[in-house]
Every structure is written in structure tokens, then in C-alpha cells.
Amino acid sequence: MSRLMDPPPKFLPPEWRLANQIHYGNAEAERSRSERLTAESKRLIEESGMAAKRMQQDANKRLEQRIHDIKFWRTELDQKLEEIVQEIAVLISYKSRVERALESCAEPLRVALQCMTERQRRVSIDLVHDDVERELMKEREVIEGVTSLLNRTLEQTNEQIRLNRSAKYYLEKDLRDKFQAEQIDGFCSILTNTSPNIDNVTSQTSLAVPGATVTPEEWETFSNINILKAEREKNNSLSLRALVDSLLEQTAADMRRQHNAMGTALRLQVQETKTAKGQLEDHLVKVLSEVASQECNLEALRVAIEDKAGPLKVAQTRLSARSQRPSIELCHDPVQVRLLSEVQELTAHIKRLREAQAQSEMELLALTRSQLILEEEIQVKSHSLYIDEVICTQLRQPISIHSF
Length: 404
Fold this sequence. Notes:
Blueprint: H1 13-104, H2 106-119, H3 131-189, H4 203-207, H5 216-322, H6 334-396
Helix pairs in contact: 1-3, 1-5, 2-3, 2-6, 3-5, 5-6
């Protein structure tokens, strides 16, 4: 119990000094470390501040450059969009021209077909495959060919308008995207360290990387492809417009030329038919005159035959009476010779007169048939003239071939 109450053992002076030296060393080491940490921290603060400022300045420059690039491409896209919009409007007007030209083909084709139908009503020998019919068939072929060509051109124009609108759609979409991107980058470019807008943005959001990112080269290539596509479609549209101009002019010229050729053939045919009708009428007048002359001739022959009947009967009666002479008086004297000769000659004359009468009757029948044929042909020509000069000519008068 006495050992427990003893005071603690005392350190020796060397131990005391050693302990003090240890405390001094530890304090000096801690102070040195603290000074180094303070210096390092100061250097790190300055370095991070400079780095943050430098990076923010670099980011601002890159944002400015990016906004400049976006504005450049927006300008290019705007210019190309304006060109393609204008080209679409012009091409639509060309489409209207083609449609009007196509509509204008309907009436000439209807008239040509109706003229062909009307001319089928010609009769007899006038139902001929003449120049008018050939020109009508050619006119129908020309109009149908023009119609087919214009239909194909209209389809090409509609397709080109669709392609132009497709190029316009992609240009507008690209412009909308770039406008939105410029708004976002413009917002980013005005942000400062003291901006209130940055309080609600977390660090994780700023580090997030979209899954569908593209490289700057791909970004430029995308817009360039849209511009090139629009330029290509615009050039195709220009070529198509030049083709439409040439086509409309050529088709109108072809139809106008054939229309004029058909009109010329119709006029010549009408003139030729009138000439033929006039000649038939002249011949009819001559035939009628000859019929009257032949009827007079036939009457004269009948009278001549009747006139010869009396002298023949007298001669025959004389011969019969003289045949009753008695005996030697039945002499073949000059009177007998004359009477025999008279009977023979009168009989011969009457025979020739009857033959002439028969021939005259046959000729009269032939003249009558010729008269009927001529009158029928004149009616045929009159009918043909009515079809060509009245119906077909009046049908074709309103037709006018225009260039659209």
C-alpha cells in the first residue's frame, strides 16, 4: 500500500531536453508542411483561375466562330431556298401552260373526228379516200401525238415540282435546325459567371453528351448536300422549262401547219368538186338538148315512115292491078320494071328508116340513162359539197391554234 502512494518517477534533464527537441521538430515540420500547402494552394488557385478564364475565353471564341459558321450556312441555305421557291413558282406556271395546251387539243381533235364521221356520209363514187381524208387522218395522228407528248411532259413537270418541293423541305428543315442552334449558341455566348440562368443547371447536365452527335465535317457536309441537291433540282427544272418552251412552240407549229394543210386540202377539194359538178351540169344541159333533138329525130323518122307507106301501097296496088292484064298484055315493060324497082326501093327505104328509128329509140334510152346518171351524180356532188363546204368548213372555222 505504501508503494502505491509513491510519487511518479521523475524524468531526467536529458529526457526533458530531448522531449522539447522532439516537440520543436514536430512543430517545425507541421509549419513547413502548412507553408508548402498554402503556397501550393495559392499556386493552384491562381492556375485554376487562369485556366478557367482561358477556357471560358476559348469557349467564347469558339461559340462566336460557331455562330459565324451557322450564320454563313444559314445565308447559303436562305439564298438557295429563295431560288428553289422561285423556281417552284415558275415551274407551276409552266405546268399551267402545258395543261392549257393539253386542253386546247381536245376541240381540234373532236372537230377532226367529227369531220371524218361526216365525210363517211358521202355516197357513191364520192366516198373516196381523197387528200382531205388523208390530211384529216394525219391531223388526228398529229393531235393525238401532241396530246401524248404533252401528257408525258405534264407528268415530268409534276415529278420535277415534287422533287423541287422535297429539296425545299430539307432546306427549310435545315434552316429551322440551324436557327434553333444559333439561338442556343447565342444564349450560351452571353452567359457569364454572374448570370442567374446558370443556377438551375447541374454539372452533370453540362457533361452529358448527346447520343446522335456528328463531327463538324459531317455537319458541313449535311448542309452542303442539301444545297447541292437543291442546285441540282433547280438546274433540272431549268432544263425542263427550256424543253417545255421548245415543246410548246414545236407542237403548236406542227398542229398549226397540219391545220393549214387540212384547210388547203379542203378548199381544193371543194373547188374540184364544184368544177366536177359544173362540168356534170354542162353535160346534163347538152344531154337534155340531145334528148330533145333525138326525140325530134324520132318523130321525123316516124313521119317519114308513114309518108312512105302511101307511095308503097300505090306501087303495090299498081303491080297487083297490072298483074291482071290479059294474055300478051302481061308484058314486062318499063312500067313493070319501074314499079318493081319502086316497090323494092321504097321497101328498102322503109327498112332503113325503121332501123334508124330503132337506133334512135335506143339512143334516146341511152341518153335518158345518161341524163339520170348525170342528175344522180350532180346530187352526189351537191351532197359532198354540203358536207365539205358547209359542215366541215363551219366546224373548222372556230379552230385557232395558239402557242401557250
